[in-house]
Amino acid sequence: MVLQVIDCKTEYVRNPLGIDEARPRLFWRLAASERRARQGAYRVLVASSPERLAKDEGDLWDSGRVESDASVHVVYDGAPLRSEQRCYWKVRVWDRRGRESAWSEPAYWTMGLLTRAEWKAKLIGRKADAENVADVGAGAGLQPSPYFRKEVTTRGTVARATAYATALGVYELRVNGAPIGDKFAPGWTDYDKRLQVQTYDVTDSMRPGANAIGVILGDGWYSGTVGFLGRNVYGERPFFLLQLHIDYADGTRDVVVTDGGWKTARGPILYSDFIKGEAYDARLELTGWDAPGYDDAAWESPDIRPVYNGRLVSMLEPPVRATELLRPIGMRRTASGSVVFDMGQNMVGWTRLSVKGPRGAEVVVSHAEMLNPDGTLYLDNLRKAVQQERYILKGGEAEEVYEPRFTFHGFRYVELIGYPGEPTLDAIVGVVVHSDTPVAGRLETSDAMVNRLYSNIRWGQRGNFLSVPTDCPQRDERLGWTGDAQIFARTASYNMDVSTFFTKFMWDMIDCQQPSGAFTDVAPDAGWIRHKMWNARLNWFAPDNPGWGDAGVIIPWTLYLMYGDVRILETHYDAMTRWVDYLQANSDGLVRPGYANYGDWLSIDADTPNEVLATAYFAYSALLMSRIAGALGRSDDAARYEALHRDVAAAFRSAFVDAEGRIYGDTQTVYVLALQFGLLTEELRSRAIDRLAADIERRGSRLSTGFLGVGYLLPALTDAGRLDLAYALLQQETFPSWMYSIKHGATTIWERWDGWTEEKGFQTPSMNSFNHYSLGSVGEWMFRYMAGIEVDRASPGFRNVLIRPHPGGTLRWVRASYESLYGTIAVSWDVSEAGRLRLQVAIPANVMATVYVPASNVVVDGAWNAAEAAETSEHGWVYHGEEAGATVIRIGSGEYTFEGALQVVGASASVAK
Q1: What angle do CA 382, 388, 389 make, to 5 degrees?
Q2: What angle, rounded to 10 degrees, do the helices at 682-698 and 707-719 form?
Q3: 369, 611, 751, 780: which is the annotated catalytic residue?
Q4: Exposed, middle or buried, 135 (CB in 10 Å: 0-12/13-18/19+)?
Q5: Which of 1, 78, 82 shows the shortest CA–CA distance to 43?
Q6: CB 3.0–4.6 Å: which of 206, 373, 391, 704 could bond 606 by disulfide?
Q7: Which of 79, 292, 110 is nearest to 206 (CA)?
């Protein structure tokens, strides 16, 4: 079969609108029915119109036939692109035999407004409303959400209408009564430096004649409550910016902009705040306000913000969307008469309420993750957050349906207070909300508790990836902690497509990188640095934190590994070098100081010395910089950073490691990091493995690692040949362990191992989230080692795949898949009672794989003995010998089955990935 080109994307996205990348990257996948299908050449056409493209005219770019197997990150190299340009493209390929494919289906992208001079719109807001400010409860001091409208009359046939919109705050855009766009746009950035612009094609929403454009503004991160940092971090009131371009069939254009000609009024949203919840008075609804013909004579003129000094950039991150609805699985009345619903899953989003009752009746919808022993909501861990909506009914015979607009909560349980009548399970629906990162990984095993663990990891990621990788979705925090993000980044990449999510987050980190070169603990910073400096009087301030600041190197490296993204390394190379230079300048003989605020955060009965952590991560950043420099062809830098890593490792050994291999602190984490970061000699490495194993066994096969150690714990053990201990920790059910929380009802990953215990109940309410993804970084091991889907560092982005499964523990089978840029990589293994392994592997077209079958006497496809068969074209595979107890076979694309007698696999040698 000739190759078929499918799934064309631009900058990781299907048909993106309003991008500002001058040289966009193009991606496509290949479909084929035969094995070892490979691309040998390609031709890309980019045209200025669909008509030209249909005629095979690449007036913007005709690459010609390019002898290359590249099908991802193919850089546009045509005519310079201009603002608002529409670019249509297609591609055809040739396989290795020279057979030509058909053209792909057409794809396209559009450019945004590339220069500031093209922006004619002004930021509009509503003046502070002293009379209508909320004065009670959670909303004390909060302003109502302002409404804006503008009527527009079209004067002919509309060929295309494009809206460019953004806000200092969050907004909901409406055209002729219908919502446009997604939730919480434009997302969270450092608003003083960067503001993301959303581009919408609203052609189909425009009508002949009169049209109405409506907007509702929310405080969001701009002027609302940001964690425990308070309100008005960036500004006092939200503002909105819109430029609508209406292109007519006759070639003329109208431009509608936000300016003093708009009208504004308060509406039914009394206040709406991410941390404090929302209050809505349905009696104040403005019926028809977003439709043409509405009487807005009583509305006011908007307030105009004269200038915005930050950068207006194209939307980078995936949009925040409602992706799923959950129905409650049970309900019960409390002693006070309220009704508590169980959603069956700790989730993030809000509740859709259905209610009918008298005018003026108020229903309070309250949310919590856990219940107290008496069945009431456990609210102590929310601190100053108020996960609550207050809905005032307009009354009447019709059922009223309400869901909030500009707030979100983390919860499993919902309490209705003041509900008129007797509610049923249909009274509420849970709306699941998060950044819409497409599902990439799937994993299932023979162990129901391991499956629950993986489900908890995924739900934790869904709940905490909301514009930025937040630390918890329920209490007054929800900040973009960089240490949490870096330790989980690889797991996140296996679970979902986080290419654009982390690309945007890196800009958040860059925007708050300090003049010294230090990366911050949270991004966007949102005043965290000032908050820390205020606490310096308590000797609490640290100018950097190991494992947190290092995210500035680890996250780009992770994107390079998982997606083959060289551009992110090029873009942020200088920032990364500044960080490593900062570490070197602020060390003593290459040993870093121990002033860190966090250390191995929330370790359990094991305090790792901060200076050990800091020096280990210094070495790791240097090691990664040597690899990054090598990937960019900067050979001198690569050699310099490689030497720096050796020198820091030597300093680490001199300062912290004794002759018996004992590392200062003697915790599981010090050994794990020393092993994974390449800090030990071979002799010391062997001793460190023994000490690590002895500590785990002394604790009864239990872990003690916190945030920084946990992600490397099982990989270190597996690489060291102690797969038995890795599985013992994975499947451990007693405290502390992953399974302990599951045995006690967890449906997401807890912040701390001891969030709740049988002996002590709830931990300190000051910091006790039950949805916090960091300890879920074990998901990386589950994909890379348990299932065996691993990237080849020499060929990143899964251009070449390493399939190296590690059967073990009590698991009888594992099934996993990963959606790479090239297509689906799938692995399935099972072990019979007699100890016979059956391994099935599927590899997408244009990809090669090296399979390490942990078995002897391997038979391929039920027909050939691997060690005896010669390579032939119909086989699609070739035997490459034996290595560490595994039979090594090189395969091309296609589906393969390997069978043999299971062997215990030795070290995987994937140190410091």
Answers
A1: 165
A2: 110
A3: 751
A4: exposed
A5: 78
A6: 704
A7: 292
Per-residue pLDDT averaged across 586-606, rounded? 96
Q: Is 846 exposed, middle or buried (0-12, 13-18, 19+ CB in 10 A)?
A: buried
pTM given for the model = 0.97
Locate tokens 């119909």: which residue?
A: 874
pLDDT surpassing 90 at residue 306: no
User: Each residue of 74-126: pLDDT tens digit?
Assistant: 999 999 999 999 999 999 999 999 999 999 999 999 999 999 999 999 999 99
The reply to whether omega before 186 is within 30° of 0 (cis) is: yes
Chain center to CA of 613: 26
E strand spans, 418-536: 428-435, 441-445, 465-466, 468-469
Question: In whole angstroms, what is the distance from residue 815 CA to residue 177 CA?
Answer: 47
Contacts of 534 (CB under 8 A, 6+ apart): none
Do 195 and 311 meet the contact criterion of CB atoms below 8 Å apart?
yes
Quote the pLDDT of residue 595.
94
Q: Tell me how many degrees the CA angle 848-849-852 measures, rounded to the nearest 5.
A: 165
Query: Which pLDDT belongs to residue 422?
Result: 94
What letter represents residue 474's amino acid? Q
d(CA 635, CA 652): 25
Q: What number of other Cβ atoms are within 10 A of residue 184's Cβ?
A: 25
Q: Which residues contact 504 (CB under 8 A, 6 or more apart)?
A: 187, 196, 316, 317
CA atoms of 132 and 627, how far apart (whole Å): 58
CA pseudo-torsion sign 390, 394, 400, 406: negative
| Digit-coded pLDDT (tens) for 735-773 | 999 999 999 999 999 999 999 999 999 999 999 999 999
**For 352-405, what is each residue's pLDDT tens digit?**
999 999 999 999 999 999 999 999 999 999 999 999 999 999 999 999 999 999
Count of beta carbons in the 10 Å neighbourhood of residue 507: 21
Cα separation, 242 vs 172, whole angstroms: 12
CA distance 671 to 661: 9
Beta strands in 315-387 (DSSP E): 320-326, 330-333, 339-355, 362-368, 370-371, 377-378
Share of the chain above pLDDT 90, in %: 92
Are the C-beta atoms of residues 323 and 304 closer than 8 Å to each other? no
Question: In sequence order, what are the beta bridge partners of 496?
Answer: 439
User: Residue for token digits 């692995």?
Assistant: 827
Lowest mean pLDDT among 139-148, 320-329, 396-405, 588-597: 139-148
Q: Which residues contact 441 (CB under 8 A, 6 or more apart)?
A: 494, 495, 496, 783, 816, 817, 818, 819
Q: 271 forms bridges with which residues in the sheet?
A: 279
Return the structure tokens found at 585: 């300048």
Closest CA to 825 of 804, 841, 805: 841
Candidates 172, 369, 477, 819; catalytic one: 477
pLDDT tier for residue 136 given thresholds of 50, 70 and 90: low
Q: Is 906 exposed, middle or buried (0-12, 13-18, 19+ CB in 10 A)?
A: middle
751 is catalytic: yes
CA 16 to chain CA mean position, Å:
19
The Cβ of residue 664 has, within 10 Å, a number of other Cβ atoms equal to: 15
Q: What φ, ψ does residue 147 adopt, rounded to 5°?
A: -110, 145
- Mean of the pLDDT values across residues 617-633? 98
Contact at 8 Å (CB) between 512 and 475? no
Of 406, 405, 418, give the one whose Cα is nearest residue 360: 418
pLDDT single digits (tens) 647-686: 999 999 999 999 899 999 999 999 999 999 999 999 999 9
Give the up-direction half-sphere exposure of residue 883: CA atoms within 13 A in the CB hemisphere: 13
Q: What's the CA gap between 335 and 322, in Å, rounded? A: 34
**Under 8 Å between Cβ of 676 and 911:** yes
- Amino acid in the structure at residue 214: G
